[in-house]
UniProtKB/TrEMBL annotation:
Family as reported in the entry's similarity comment: Belongs to the acetokinase family.
Record-listed ATP binding positions: K19, H210, L211, G212, N213, G214, D284, L285, R286, G332, V333, G334, E335, N336
Annotated residues for binding of substrate: R93
Active site: D150 (proton donor/acceptor)
Keyword line: ATP-binding, Cytoplasm, Kinase, Magnesium, Metal-binding, Nucleotide-binding, Transferase
CDD domains referenced in this protein's UniProt entry, alphabetically: ASKHA_NBD_AcK_PK
Lineage, opening ranks: Bacteria, Bacillati, Actinomycetota, Actinomycetes, Micrococcales
The protein's name in its UniProt record: Acetate kinase
Organism: Cellulomonas persica
Kinase recorded as keyword: yes
An annotated GO BP: acetyl-CoA biosynthetic process
NCBIfam families, A to Z: ackA
Length: 403
């Protein structure tokens, strides 16, 4: 790295973990990355990876402050040297920006307070994100810290897509609307895939299918999100590793009235014991495919449901967009699972979507067109890079533009 180049430290703080990456926001490369896990447990773990070494440690990490202190000592001990990396910003992933934030912001005491106030909308995530911000600001006080919100890209969804058809006063009083999630990824992929295809994003209609352990779809018209599948929380929409996605809300009352479940048990059922995990016992699609190969009929149904739901969203968003130019598959499943991609697009030729099965075959590490040359819609596998996206947004905030 030359002395002129800059870097951004991207931090994703969870309830018991801190993931981080030191990113070159211009070249896009990860200079170093790592994860602290099992914070607060008897023995925690640290993994720190540089371009030339991997360091792993098992040791107690009582809290996030200690976790980040350990990370900074690893940077000092094995490099890269942060004082020479010209860190121009720390970018923090924040899950819920609620009705307040429509873009990334420089963190100050007011922003911290607002993130805290939004915690009822994301009780598992926002407090953990805020902890990461607080310890980060305490340990790296000389660098600007930027909060990048997962919901911001969807802040300006049209009312038709953002509103739920419930009592308006209740919705307003309790901030009930579609906020979406994975917005940083949807924004990055929809914009970068247009550039990859040599298209003007301002004149492109795109469906992004972010299929990871969490999964969401978005409809993006001329660079702006016009609909997305996640709702008030990340529970709505596609079938996920452990979440049900779309479900009749009456299932909740039914279970509470007839199965003796309380609200926390239904929450646990729908968020952590449903989706692929609930249907097959496995949340990882690789394992679900293995079960199918072993003749497990339930696993076959789970993949049918998973692909059917994606197909429904492709159809729905094609209608919302008035025709779609580009469909982009991304994240763990989207980038690696050719069966899901083929099943989701199967039979959509009359919508202008034609997959080339040979092009589709296999895992994709690089952006790859998987539609036929004659397909009116271009279907692309486009690897997401949320850390780079956060780093670039953080740079935009601190410099008012790219370095
Ligand atoms: P997260 O949502 O946790 O960021 P990822 O985007 O990394 O997740 O996706 C993780 C998921 O991707 C796994 O749970 C698994 O279902 C899927 N996945 C990863 N590799 C493969 C693969 N080779 N084939 C099929 N699915 C895969």
């Amino acid at each position: 790295m030359t002395t002129q180049s800059t870097s951004v430290l991207v931090v994703n703080s969870g309830s018991s973990s801190i993931k981080y990456q030191l990113v070159d926001p211009v070249g896009g490369e990860a200079i170093a990355w790592g994860i602290v896990e099992r914070i607060g447990e008897e023995v925690g773990s640290l993994k720190h990876v540089t371009q030339t070494s991997t360091t792993e440690r098992e040791l107690p990490v009582p809290d996030h402050g200690e976790g980040l202190r350990r990370v900074l000592s690893l940077f000092e001990a094995v490099g890269p040297d942060l004082s020479r990396a010209n860190v121009i910003a720390v970018g923090h992933r924040v899950v819920q920006g609620g009705p307040v934030f429509d873009g990334p912001v420089l963190v100050d005491a007011l922003v911290e307070h607002q993130i805290e106030q939004l915690s009822p909308l994301a009780p598992l995530h926002n407090p953990a994100n805020l902890t990461g911000i607080r310890v980060g600001r305490a340990l790296l006080p000389d660098v600007p810290h930027v909060a990048v919100f997962d919901t911001a890209f969807f802040h300006h969804l049209p009312a038709a897509a953002a509103s739920y058809a419930i009592d308006r006063d209740v919705a307003e009083k309790h901030s009930v609307r579609r906020y979406g999630a994975h917005g940083t990824s949807h924004q990055y992929v929809s914009h970068e895939v247009a550039a990859f295809l040599g298209r003007d994003v301002e004149q492109t209609s795109t469906i992004v299918l972010h299929l990871g352990n969490g999964a969401s779809a978005s409809a993006v018209k001329n660079g702006h999100a016009v609909d997305t599948s996640m709702g008030l929380t990340p529970l709505e929409g596609l079938v996920m590793g452990t979440r049900s996605g779309d479900i009749d809300p009456a299932v909740t009352f039914h279970l509470m009235r007839n199965a003796g479940m309380d609200v926390d048990e239904v929450d646990d059922l729908l968020n952590r014991r449903s989706g692929l995990k609930g249907m097959t016992g496995q949340n990882d699609l690789r394992e679900v495919h293995r079960l199918v190969e072993e003749g497990d009929a339930g696993a076959k149904v789970a993949i049918d449901v998973y692909a059917h739901r994606i197909k429904k969203y492709i159809g729905g968003y094609t209608a919302v967009l008035g025709g779609v130019d580009v469909i982009a598959f991304t994240a763990g499943v989207g980038e690696n699972d050719d069966i899901v991609r083929a099943r989701a697009c199967e039979g959509l030729e009359r919508l202008g979507i034609e997959i080339d099965l040979e092009r589709n075959a296999g895992r994709k590490k690089e952006p790859t067109i998987i539609s036929t040359d004659s397909s009116p819609t271009t279907v692309v596998v486009f690897p997401t890079n949320e850390e780079l996206a956060i780093a670039r947004l953080a740079v935009d905030v601190v410099t008012g533009g790219r370095p």
